[in-house]
Amino acid sequence: MSEPEVTDESPLMCHRCGIELEPGKGDFYVVKIKALADPTPPSFSEEDLYRDARVEIERLIEQMEGLSEQEAMDQIYRRLVLYLCGRCYETAKSRHLFRDFVDATPQITLTENEIQVQFQKRAHNPLLLAPNIDKTACVVPWLGKKRLRLIFG
Question: Which of 30, 88, 93, 105 is the most exposed, having the fewest neighbouring CB atoms within 10 Å of its CB?
Fold first, then answer.
């Protein structure tokens, strides 16, 4: 989730309750979350040094089979920027922020004609449902003109 551009045309909304935020009034918070996989170099045993590196690389590639580029990247790095109104910021607990935003990976299903993205039922879904984006399906030209359908709950 990247930082949205704040313009007069696009209202800024609280990511938890969906109320409109007014830049310049000092009534909201910007919460930045960066999640990284363990950045330290791996430890190797003497036995590991004698393994065939090509076999190990092929094994790792096989483990990643079926993962999209985004799913593979999400296992290593995620950066989220959340805007919270004062009330939501005061009541937010770190475990809720993690559950609602970091650990909210959708289930993606590809069919012959459609890409279905199903989100878990979460407190922040009303923000996504407000503009009725779950009622429309757009065509993705660079994916064989498949329709993209968002499903909540």
Answer: 93
